């Protein structure tokens, strides 16, 4: 019955208004998700996507507007009720408790009991999760493994499995691929096709418009807290969606200035870290943008960590401006004007409960204090960077926690711009960042290169690497297996080396 | 600078609530307790119920700001006191003995720093250990806990200055408390060190990833806590001209209480010096008011407990309301 009155919508949000303090995160947003569809939701950082999802999840309450599920209006949704209605979420910023085991994380709050007793049915839980992990992921994870020891992709798998255990009718993904390498992302897409075929309705948020076009039937575009279009994907394109998001044509996606690389800034010779990588050598020059890529465990990420002094290398040498770096100490790296924008920005990149200003100047407080902190110049610097990076915030005193995911990333970058670093190590710098902001970050990388900085970009987005770097080093099983000149290669060629296609051939032949 | 202090003193509705609570308690005792409002009593509140606890609580605020706690502030007080008395007994000049006292207190901080920043023991456990070790050491030093008296005839006049002296009519303990409060506020909210300490308490990994030597800051912070607490050891000894082993621990719970009252009422939930000072005032006024109302010691303790409960309840309600807005 309900189906006919609301056009088959399983979830319907109407004219939602949500304010935080004075600012409206949503100002009349509507979203209607048809049963059995794969529905995309896109918009710039801060457009209100996560807020809308959290409203549906019962984590926020709307100031105005209605939420309907199966045609029935609810004005007091709670997370518990929503789950009972069969709607489950893979949130963008909900972290798993790192000290939990996989088993605990999977069943937290809905533990299975041995029928008729208050005792936990451990065998039953183990069987059920193992079955789902094997069926959907072809994978087994030990129940006793600590969440803290899992890779980002594995954590994501735990979250999805947790939702699947509850037999969901609707699954909502808020930027699920942000944490995944491309190959893993492909697995996720297959999974979504499969879940969709099994009759689960999917709501999917992503900044990769290509993904949206590939896997969704319908897409809704949010802009400034309002839905500006809902289109069948068959009748649109990534370019059109992008233009709707930012309300203008996007222009050059990969702005890259021509810079002739100067003298060597960073020299890496035969660097090794036991069981992680070995015999890694390369040089980064002034004005150069060097790309690193590889699968999880290929060693690329570990090289970046080691360069910043987070791990102690077991062999080889690193020198900056001709001076050898001796210790595993981020403070020494920073003094040598290295900067790291870490992948896990909410843990290592920004302090969520410090303000935008306090985060921006944290690595460069010396510049702003002569005995006492000069609050005026600190604020001027922050305002300047907020403007330059187009960080969307309620003000420079707002806590970073209140910023949207992409804007938090920009603050993590601003911290090092304030420090006036010379060598930038960027670990997945545009993950979770909207296309307009991506272009901004690319432009910024170009600008830094023009000013004589050296930039190392670690990314699993190969198109991005080809667009913005001069050279690309491909890591496979702990070694640099290939070097490309970015302007002379294609995504397929790079990808073949990333996945080790050539390596296997070589071994076979 | 003074205006910055005032503005941070009164920022946000939460801080007003703390000032309002203080005013209410004040008004209550002014009507209930005879003699509460007299000038002599108010001065005694400031000197006896406020000055010393304020210094210890301010020290505690540094530890809590960094996301830790220091259960051994009393040990630092005792060590300072012991060193001070011993050096004076040994015939050293008072000024030198006082410096020795500060060093004695600081030593406790160095010990904490090694445990926390060096070995990586959690601040709670490390300082609890220091508290126990400190107690045993004092018993060993004093033949099982005998007080060390200064012979009444042999007390140099200068020795009594810290506890009994006045400068321009202001009692020295109060003056020292004011200096410590102002200095601590300056360091915690206006310097690079203070900012880093705060950031450590909020999200330590970001501090490390920002190229800041986390263990150095942590170590310096715990030495600072003990050194501030040591000032109380000096004043206390100068006041009573005796060192009593393990007597410093009397301040511990109230110092923690005052710090958390201040933290609870901060709009951002951050430990802060002005909040701590208001917390100490609140505790001090209540203790004195209850005393004058003629309640016995045990009911005074109950009163203090109730105060902390109600203050924290109001604070949490406030913050929840702010979060919902
Ligand atoms: N708890 C909060 N308090 C204050 N403001 C908030 C809060 N949560 C979100 N906002 C603000 O609401 C706006 C929308 O944020 P939201 O997280 O929904 O964006 P988003 O579309 O998910 O962006 P992103 O792509 O970066 O994740 C932002 O301007 C953000 O700063
Ligand atoms: Mg979001």
TrEMBL record, chain A:
SMART domains with a match to the protein in the record: AAA
Pfam families: ABC_tran
UniProt xrefs under InterPro entries: AAA+_ATPase (IPR003593), ABC_carbohydrate_import_ATPase (IPR050107), ABC_transporter-like_ATP-bd (IPR003439), ABC_transporter-like_CS (IPR017871), P-loop_NTPase (IPR027417)
Highest taxon in the source lineage: Bacteria
UniProt keyword list: ATP-binding, Membrane, Nucleotide-binding, Repeat, Sugar transport, Transport
Domain ABC transporter: 11-249, 260-502
Coiled coil segments of this chain: none
Record GO terms (molecular function): ATP binding; ATP hydrolysis activity
Protein family (similarity comment): Belongs to the ABC transporter superfamily.
Protein name: Ribose transport system ATP-binding protein
Native organism: Mycoplana azooxidifex
Taxonomic lineage: Bacteria, Pseudomonadati, Pseudomonadota, Alphaproteobacteria, Hyphomicrobiales
Automatic annotation (TrEMBL), chain B:
Compartment list: Cell membrane
Listed transmembrane segments: 16-37, 49-69, 81-104, 110-133, 167-187, 222-244, 250-266, 273-292, 298-317
Membrane topology of the entry: Multi-pass membrane protein
UniProt KW keywords: Cell inner membrane, Cell membrane, Membrane, Transmembrane, Transmembrane helix, Transport
Record-linked InterPro entries: ABC_transp_permease
Entry keyword annotation includes Cell inner membrane: yes
Name this protein carries in UniProt: Ribose transport system permease protein
Lineage, broadest ranks: Bacteria, Pseudomonadati, Pseudomonadota, Alphaproteobacteria, Hyphomicrobiales
């Amino acid at each position: 019955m309900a189906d006919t009155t609301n056009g088959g919508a399983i979830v319907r949000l109407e004219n939602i208004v949500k304010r935080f303090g004075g600012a409206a995160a949503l100002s009349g947003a509507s979203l209607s998700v048809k049963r059995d569809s794969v529905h995309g939701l896109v918009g710039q950082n801060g457009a209100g996507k996560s807020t809308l999802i959290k409203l549906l999840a019962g984590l926020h309450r709307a100031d105005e507007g209605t939420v309907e599920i199966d045609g029935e209006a609810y004005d007091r949704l709670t997370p518990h009720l929503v789950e009972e209605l069969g709607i489950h979420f893979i949130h963008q910023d909900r972290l798993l408790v790192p000290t939990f085991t996989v088993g605990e994380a999977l069943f937290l709050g809905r533990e299975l009991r041995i029928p008729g007793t208050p005792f936990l049915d451990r065998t039953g839980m183990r069987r059920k999760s193992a079955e789902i992990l094997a069926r959907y992921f072809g994978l087994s994870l030990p129940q006793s493994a600590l969440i803290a020891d899992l890779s980002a992709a594995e954590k994501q798998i735990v979250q999805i499995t947790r939702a699947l255990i509850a037999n969901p009718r609707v699954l909502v993904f808020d930027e699920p691929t942000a944490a995944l390498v491309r190959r893993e992302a492909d697995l996720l897409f297959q999974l979504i096709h499969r879940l969709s075929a099994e009759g689960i309705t999917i709501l999917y948020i992503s900044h990769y418009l290509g993904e949206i076009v590939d896997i969704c039937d319908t897409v809704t575009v949010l802009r400034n807290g309002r839905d500006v279009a809902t289109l069948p994907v068959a009748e649109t394109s990534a370019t059109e969606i992008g233009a709707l998001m930012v309300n203008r044509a996007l222009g050059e996606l990969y702005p890259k200035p021509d810079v002739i690389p100067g003298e060597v800034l960073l020299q890496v010779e035969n660097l090794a870290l036991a069981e992680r990588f070995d015999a890694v050598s390369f040089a980064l020059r002034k004005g150069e943008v060097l790309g690193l890529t590889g699968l999880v465990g290929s060693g690329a990420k570990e090289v970046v960590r080691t360069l910043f002094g987070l791990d102690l290398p077991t062999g080889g040498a690193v020198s900056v401006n001709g001076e050898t770096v001796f210790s595993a100490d981020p403070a020494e790296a920073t003094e040598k004007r290295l900067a790291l924008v870490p992948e896990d920005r909410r843990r290592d990149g920004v302090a969520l409960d410090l303000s935008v200003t306090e985060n921006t100047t944290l690595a460069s407080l010396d510049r702003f204090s002569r005995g006492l902190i000069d609050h005026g110049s600190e604020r001027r610097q922050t305002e300047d960077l907020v403007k330059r990076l187009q960080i969307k915030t309620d003000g420079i005193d707002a806590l970073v926690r209140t910023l949207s995911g992409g804007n938090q990333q920009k603050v993590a970058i601003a911290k090092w711009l304030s420090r006036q670093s010379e060598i930038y190590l960027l670990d997945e710098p545009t993950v979770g960042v909207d296309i307009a902001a991506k272009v901004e970050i690319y432009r910024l990388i170009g600008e830094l290169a023009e000013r004589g900085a050296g930039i190392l970009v670690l990314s699993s987005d190969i198109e991005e690497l080809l667009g913005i770097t001069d050279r690309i080093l491909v890591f496979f099983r702990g070694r640099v297996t290939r070097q490309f000149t970015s302007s002379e290669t294609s995504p397929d060629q790079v990808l073949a080396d990333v996945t080790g296609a050539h390596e296997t051939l070589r071994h076979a032949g | 600078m003074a205006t910055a202090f005032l503005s941070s003193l009164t920022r946000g509705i939460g801080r007003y609530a703390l000032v309002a609570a203080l005013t209410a308690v004040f008004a209550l005792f002014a009507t209930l307790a005879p003699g509460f409002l007299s000038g002599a009593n108010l001065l005694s509140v400031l000197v006896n119920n406020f000055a010393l606890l304020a210094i210890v609580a301010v020290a505690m605020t540094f530890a809590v700001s960094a996301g830790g706690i220091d259960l051994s502030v009393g040990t630092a007080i005792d060590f300072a006191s012991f060193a001070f008395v011993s050096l004076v007994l040994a015939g050293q000049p008072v000024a030198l003995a006082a410096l020795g006292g500060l060093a004695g207190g600081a030593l406790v901080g160095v010990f904490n720093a090694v445990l926390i920043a060096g070995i990586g023991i959690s601040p709670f456990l490390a300082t609890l250990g220091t508290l126990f070790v400190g107690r045993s050491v004092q018993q060993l030093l004093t033949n099982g806990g005998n007080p060390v008296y200064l012979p009444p005839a042999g007390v140099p006049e200068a020795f009594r200055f810290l506890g009994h002296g006045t400068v321009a009519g202001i009692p020295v303990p109060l003056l020292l408390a004011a200096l410590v409060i102002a200095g601590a506020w300056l360091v915690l909210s206006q310097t690079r060190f203070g900012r880093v300490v705060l950031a450590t308490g909020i999200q330590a990994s970001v501090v490390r990833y920002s190229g800041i030597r986390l263990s150095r800051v942590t170590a310096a912070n715990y030495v600072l806590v003990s050194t501030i607490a040591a000032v109380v050891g000096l004043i206390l000894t100068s006041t009573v001209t005796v060192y009593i082993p393990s007597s410093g621990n009397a301040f511990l719970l109230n110092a923690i209480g005052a710090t958390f009252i201040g933290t609870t009422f901060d709009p951002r939930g951050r430990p802060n010096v002005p909040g701590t000072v208001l917390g100490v005032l609140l505790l001090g006024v209540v203790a004195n008011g209850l005393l004058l109302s003629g309640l016995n010691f045990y009911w005074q303790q109950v009163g203090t407990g109730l105060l902390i409960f109600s203050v924290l309840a109001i604070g949490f309600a406030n913050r929840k309301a702010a979060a919902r807005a």
